[in-house]
Amino acid sequence: MTASFGRIFGPGLVLLVLQCVSLLAVGLEVGYFHHRVALLLEPLSPDCGGDDATERMHVAEHLLARANALDDWDPLAWVPAATLLLALAGSLAAAWEQWRHSSAACRRSAGRLLALQAGALVLGGAMLHAFDRVWQAYITLLPAACMSDRLMNDEASLAASTAWTFQVFGAARAMPPHAPDAMAIVLCGLLLASLAVGIWLWRQAPAPSAL
């Protein structure tokens, strides 16, 4: 009985839970970012107010006001970010513990798991930094561009003009707005791979001897 509980509730289960929490935290971070961007761009009229310079100035000021209001949500942003980093750090520690106690037959796989978790932690931190950079670009570049540029399609709102947004980011040589999403996809791939390796190691691990 003690050996069975030791196998079920050992480092393998801890690693599995932390990996699942990491995946959920990535989803929360991505969803939270896109929700903030949608709220930021929601009130914009087609063509940033058209040819009327006063109206375009009004739209840009409205955009800046919404950006300042959404900055009050910053403490909320730390919830998924801190959860992700803590879960990734805990997964790395659990993978290290598995590597230390793995048998000779499983040591190579445990080493791969350790490398995957280390890569996931580094990529997770880089992804969070990328989301922050893109958000700062949204709230600084788009108001200025709205006052000076016109949308390519007069019938489309700024929120729907993805090509125009990419042009604005490209002209300023800012990080592309889709870059953090691509990093999140790669991070999910790393986490799923480490999840598969962790489950395999958990099944291969011998049950601890009963006291």
Notes on the structure:
This protein is mainly alpha-helical and 211 residues long. It has one domain. The protein is built from 7 helices and no strands. It has helices at residues 2-8, 11-41, 53-71, 74-101, 107-148, 162-171, 179-204. Helix 4 packs antiparallel against helix 5.
Helices and strands, with pairings:
Blueprint lengths: L1 H7 L2 H31 L11 H19 L2 H28 L5 H42 L13 H10 L7 H26 L7
Helix pairs in contact: 2-3, 2-4, 2-5, 2-7, 3-5, 4-5, 5-7
Please give a quick description of this structure:
With 211 residues, the chain is mainly α.
Q: Which features characterize this protein?
A:
single chain; 211 residues; mainly alpha; 7 helices; 77% helix; elongated; disordered N terminus
Order of helices and strands: HHHHHHH
Strand residue content: under 5%
Number of domains: 1
| Overall pLDDT | 76
The overall strand count is 0
Query: Radius of gyration, Cα only, in angstroms?
Result: 23 Å
The biggest beta sheet reads: none
Gross morphology is elongated
Number of helices: 7
Structural class: mainly alpha
How far apart lie the N and C ends?
10 Å
Helix content: over 70%
Low-confidence stretches: 1-6, 151-160
